[in-house]
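Quick one, T. Sequence first:
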Amino acid sequence: MKLRFFEDKATMGVAAASEAATLIRNAIAARGHARILAATGESQLAFVNALLRETGIAWDKVEMFHLDEYVGLSLDHPASFRRYLLERIIRKTGIQHYHLLDGETDPEKICREVGALLAAAPIDVAFAGIGENGHLAFNDPPADFVTEQPYHVVKLDEACRRQQVGEGWFKTLADVPERAISISVRQLLKANAIVVFVPDARKAPAVQRCLEGPVSPLAPASILRTHPAATLYLEPASASLLQRRPVTGDEFPP
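Structure tokens:
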């Protein structure tokens, strides 16, 4: 995994979006289409908004999957990741080919059906963040680093659920679902490239654990260090607890 460091979140968002857009364009130029994995959440907005400003992307040739969704949450709930993607990406780009994770009816069936589609061909680029507890997608610690299921149903820990309240998606902890559909760690690592966008001071402890601690299920996003084409985007706040100031081009091997 390589690191890119910027002095502010806005500049970082533009740079991450530029890399993502280049990977999408290159895939379309090479094969006539691109397959992407989209991330959601408040921390991804600077990246998502910058990606929408990129030009020259044939969005009608993009097939989109996403990382996760709550079990039992309706599409019209403000915290629904399906709603997030529809409002912030799909309707704004005109993407025609997308697969949304419906956690309202039979989540295990959705895991099997959408998982089979996801695993059918390589993903050109995945977008990801790091949770306050170090989670990757909704793989909370201790994360399952072994399962080969493309998607699985997971139990959300309290730290993860409190993050959702802190970001304003839910009013109380009791309102946050206790389970979610999540892409598995091993499936995410199969993406050809991963763009990891991590702003804000509240993510600094997780960044420190994932970069400077051992690669461990207790710090799920630490596994990104094993991916040769993952790029981690940081700014001063999110990098503030690292032992030394990061420099663009730094590499973090296992």
